[in-house]
């Protein structure tokens, strides 16, 4: 079992370009999350999906959109990339209750020039 | 809403020395507490968690953390560190139930532990 997988691992974009970060899980968990990690700021929640068909904003949603395509997949889209979106992006999942352990993917390193 | 403060951004230590990584939190509701570890160029992995019961929790690789409700702290300790413990450590909290924070993890800023030979 792969757990949580993310593609791509690395990406370089020019300002204004768009892209979609893909995340998939094989753990049959209800909840999925997108975080960004920036030095000295820990991880900040961008969007989450408590279950298939639902999505909600997290702490830093501006400039992003998400799609929970099915129970397995949760994608993050940057419609018009900005240098401030240079970051490491992590997808995570969890069973869907507050005691849950979240399981993280390996991350996508994004550079916006 | 919850907030988490990790008091040290970097902690250098020699191999076999003890270490403490400090974490304080703020919340208007009861929380669950977590420590995650991130090895270089990897995702985060759960190290240990406090849900209820004994306030001292342990991990399989010798780390322990103690929940102190009165001081709203959840410090991470290890009596003797190894080179392989070099990583970034994140403290996180999650509301136990209810409100707009339900289900969301709030992370601290991270502490980089560097173990020197």
List its traits.
heterodimer, A: 113 residues, mainly beta, 7-stranded mixed beta sheet, 4-stranded antiparallel beta sheet, 11 strands, 0% helix, B: 117 residues, 6-stranded mixed beta sheet, 56% strand, globular
Describe the structure.
The complex is a heterodimer of chains A (113) and B (117). Chain A contains no helices and eleven strands. With 113 residues, chain A is mostly beta strands. In chain A, strands 2, 4, 5, 6, 9, 10 and 11 form a seven-stranded mixed beta sheet that branches. Chain A has a four-stranded antiparallel beta sheet with strand order 1-3-8-7, with no helix packed on it. In chain A, a hairpin with a 5-residue loop joins strand 7 (64-68) and strand 8. In chain B, the strands form three sheets. In chain B, strands 2, 5, 6, 10, 11 and 12 form a six-stranded mixed beta sheet that branches. In chain B, strands 3-9-8-7 form a four-stranded antiparallel beta sheet, with no helix packed on it. Chain B has a two-stranded antiparallel sheet with strand order 1-4. Chain B is globular and about 45 Å long. The N and C termini of chain B lie far apart (41 Å). The mean pLDDT of chain B is 91.
